[in-house]
Design goal:
The protein has about 70 residues and is α+β, with helices and mostly antiparallel strands. The protein has a single domain, classed as SH3 type barrels (Roll), CATH 2.30.30. It contains two helices and five strands. Strand 2 and strand 3 form a beta hairpin. The protein starts with a strand and ends with a strand. About 10% of the residues are buried.
Length: about 70
């Protein structure tokens, strides 16, 4: 998968921030994007050694990432 690093969370609503914290989607964290399913409007990703999970495109768009090389 593609490795990215979370730069910032664009949505500062408390509900989304709590969700991001629960999933360890925090600035500085390295994330592996394992797959992208356009039909399902979702991506599958893994944060660190945690289990992979799906995230809808609308939620994914609220997270600014930097590509890792």
């Amino acid at each position: 998968g593609m490795k990215v690093k979370i730069d910032s969370i664009l949505d500062q609503e408390s509900d989304f921030l709590k969700f991001a914290r629960d999933k360890k989607l925090l600035p500085g964290k390295e994330v592996v994007i394992m797959s992208s399913e356009k039909v399902a409007d979702a991506i599958t990703l893994r944060v660190g050694r945690n289990s992979p999970f799906s995230l809808g495109f609308r939620s994914a768009e609220k997270i600014l990432v930097l590509e890792q090389h």
